[in-house]
């Protein structure tokens, strides 16, 4: 378990050292497991980004990566966007599960301070003895830098 945790931390640190518009925060909600994740986003272009989420609890750990397409909804209000994406992840608990996931959500970035709030869902299927399909709503708050 220590080796897997170390690999997860190094992967997350590698992604976090890149130069571009980035956001770092917490993501709360459900899916395969309920809890909190450290959430990191890196813009790849104006319309695409990568999101990496690392979740750690006493009985499980997860690492999910999602490639997202971001669309502007400024017709509703400035700072509102919606996004969708696809990705993969690993879930380590009673057993190890490798999975595929999708993501669909809406976000709002404050104008005065660089805080981003999002509401999304990340349905996924994890292959493994004790896993299967997971689906849930998530709320995230991130600081953009």
Characterize the structure shown.
The chain is mainly β and 145 residues long. It has a single domain, classed as Porin (Beta Barrel), CATH 2.40.160. It contains 1 helix and 10 strands, in the order H-E-E-E-E-E-E-E-E-E-E. The chain has one helix spanning 2-16, and strands at 22-29, 35-43, 48-56, 61-72, 80-92, 96-109, 115-121, 124-127, 133-134, 137-144. An 8-stranded antiparallel barrel has the order 1-2-3-4-5-6-7-10. Strand 6 (96-109) and strand 7 (115-121) form a beta hairpin. The longest helix has 15 residues, at 2-16. The chain is elongated and about 45 Å long. It starts with a helix and ends with a strand. The mean pLDDT is 86.
Can I get a quick summary?
Strand 8 and strand 9 (about 135) form a beta hairpin. By secondary structure, the chain is mainly β. Helix content is about 10%, strand content about 60%.
């Amino acid at each position: 378990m220590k080796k897997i945790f170390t690999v997860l931390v190094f992967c997350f640190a590698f992604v976090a050292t890149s130069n571009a518009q980035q956001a770092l925060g917490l993501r709360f909600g459900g899916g395969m497991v309920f809890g909190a994740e450290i959430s990191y986003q890196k813009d790849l272009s104006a319309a695409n980004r990568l999101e990496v989420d690392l979740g750690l609890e006493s009985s499980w750990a997860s690492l999910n990566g999602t490639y997202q397409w971001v669309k502007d909804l400024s017709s509703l209000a400035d700072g509102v966007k919606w996004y969708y994406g696809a990705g993969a992840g690993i879930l380590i608990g009673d057993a190890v599960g490798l999975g595929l996931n999708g993501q669909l959500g809406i976000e709002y970035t404050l104008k005065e301070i660089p805080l981003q709030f999002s509401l999304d869902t990340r349905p996924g299927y994890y292959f493994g003895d004790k896993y299967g399909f997971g689906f849930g709503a998530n709320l995230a708050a991130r600081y953009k830098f």
